[in-house]
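Dear colleague,

As promised, here are the two records you asked about, laid out in our usual form so they can be pasted straight into your sheet.

NAME FIELD: protein one
SEQUENCE, THEN STRUCTURE:
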Amino acid sequence: MIQKSSVFLVCSELRGNNTLDRAIAKAGWVWGIGLWGCRFLALLAAAAFLLGARPSPATESNALKPSADGPASLPIWLSQPMSLPDAIGVALRQNYTIRKGQSDLEAAYGLVVQTKAVAWPKLRGTSGYTHDEAVEEFPLSTFKLPKDQWAGDVRIVQSIYEGGRIQSALRTARLTKDQALLQYQAVLADTLLEVRTAYFDVLQAEQQIVVQEASVKLLMQQLENTTHRFDAGTVPRFDVLRAEVEVANARPKLIRAKNQYRIAKSTLATLLGYRVPATIWEDIPLTLTGRLEAEPYEIELPEAEPYEIELPAALAQALERRAELGVLRKAEGLRKEGIITAKSGYKPTLDVFAGYGAHNSRYIDDMWRDVSGALAGVEFSWDIFDGRLTKGKVMQAKALHDKAVFDIEDASHRIELEVRTAYSTFQESREVLESQRKVQEQAEEALRLATSRYDAGTGTQLDVLNAQTSLTEARTTQIEALHGYAVARARLERAIGCDVAQPGPDGKGR
């Protein structure tokens, strides 16, 4: 079997010294270094303990504040009116998915440091001690080898050439860092989309309560009016019963609307990284200042005037700006560097080193007599045949690179489909919203006319009830259309890779 061949060149300057005091001084020097090292480690452990005992910023912001009403109250950000930029700012600080993404980003930076290590010089220290009773005496001589042997050295080792692996490692570190940033951006985009959607859900649920309360109020007024007419003998008992049934049927809708409001606020609070205390049973005192509005959607490109988004522009921007595609492109670059690293096994490696070493005398049975001096050298190695290990690594690296290319193509098609779906949904929501602009006004006017005719005796109670139902449906549809428009816009912005507005210094979006 062909073994690994190597050439090892060492130039050393050795000088003997049998002074016991010098050996003792060296031993004391080593002991001092070890003692100070132990003290340093103890200080590090104490600092880590103190830092670990401190609460995190999110924990401090979530902590319950003292109040006059009790031992604790709600966090400051929860007890104040909250706009959408405010909610995004809180999520950036406290959302657990974002915080886990930050941990992943730090871990990736640690991997970058590890990858770059191949290009940095290494400072190595070695030492050893051996006691051997099986020593051989030289014939016709009193000389014998010492039973105790010790040696140690400290050297700096620098890799000069490793078949292209050093340069590839530096490129890999840069790609890994960029990929980690893009992955974190994707986590941010997904999480902030959830926060925006949850914020809009709370606004919708709040408006639905207003609509259902208005519906119950109208039906209660109709019941009261019908009861007065029945007492006056102008309408039959059947009209009163039908009005009571309508009121009873409307109340469950109001109850469900209030429940949806509670659930929506709990969902938003959870996304903001807040754990609802067990003492809060009914509702979270969360007040939102946002409104469901149908603002014209325009896209801004660098050095261009804002214009209404069109599908071709949306597709082009998505393929250019989506972080997920950036992650896959970096992954493809990493796989390409993996091929270079695998092929480096075919080539030799060259290291240089320099340092200082010492060992006890090999000719005098005196443990304290040392021989020390500087050392330097060059190490050259080449695996002439490694059992086809490198060939297998190259085959694997090439296959993984091909897979990375296919991943980019597949993700591009999926993102295009996502953009088309989001764009179509946005167009639908805009058309639905446009169709509902005057429906509520018409429904209110129809109810007014039906009530007037009923009061005049020319209309029926059924006409009034139908008009009230139509008005409630129109108001509900209007709110759903506004909510659908807001959510569809947020999803389209996410699909095309638009940056989400961040809270500025004044707390407003920018």
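NAME FIELD: protein two
SEQUENCE, THEN STRUCTURE:
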Amino acid sequence: MTAADGVLVADQGLPRPVTPEATRNQAQRPSRHPVTSVADYLGSGRRSFSFEFFPPKTDEGERQLWRAIRELEPIAPSFVSVTYGAGGSTRDRTVRVTERIAAETSLTPVAHLTAVGHSVAELRHVVGQYAGAGVRNILALRGDPPGGLGSPWEAHPQGMSYASELVRMVRSLGDFCVGVAAFPDKHPESADLDADARRLVEKAEAGAGFAVTQFFFDAADYFRLRDRVDALGCSLPILPGIMPVTNLAQIQRFAQLSGAAFPDDLAARLHAVGEDPEAVRAVGVEIGAALASRLLEGGAPGVHFYTLNRSTATREIYATLGLDRAA
């Protein structure tokens, strides 16, 4: 039987085909995690506070990741997610870490899935692995071009070209809640900000239940995106993404790679404290907390923290905002 006959789910180390109905039943089994659907959680009006990790490349990196997870677990985030590497290069690690979070913690995992570099059959197989682990929330992303930002986008010959296609596929395979990416700063491949808003609405029309933004540093950029999407008649919840600044060179490099604008005034504040890592983190926490506060006061449905597999800055922002006491 081919992958077209059903989603492939691991069984005793071997893939076996099952029907979409069987996958749907698997995804509906009782969960040990407090949040079963991110979209339903957001639809209830509760604020979401979530964390994002990346799959480690070394044994020490894996130990650091699990230290961060265990240190952040008592805060009881709405969900946590684990990224794919460039070009889907860390797919196996991403799936393994996500499955372990589902099995060994009280955290609700949101599984990343990118179209880049994968055939439809491979994507269906990954969805089956997630379903087998009881993961019901998936973040569906087209992914960056295999050659990096600025290089031409090339779809896999048997794959997909758009995130909206991936959203439709995941929704067709079972009772999954699907999230998508959003871009407060113009996506590097977009004609303009209005085009970004239209692409986001298209993903919502394909079945997306929520969005998470790329990290940014100016609250006004988030609100402009939200207002553009609202003006198009779409009420998709958009979670703003914040990356706490703990290393100026690193954050500037990330901003350049992602197309995010790093404001000169923030760079000046960080340069003013020199190379003292504790002082840099303290300023970064102050900047992150101020941004989070403006977003929440302006009606954002929550905040998504890009942790870089470290817990300290995120926990300090939580404390500054008083969210640790609320948790």
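A couple of things worth noting about protein two: The domain at 3-326 is CATH 3.20.20.220 (TIM Barrel). Confidence is low (pLDDT under 50) at residues 1-31.

Best,
R.
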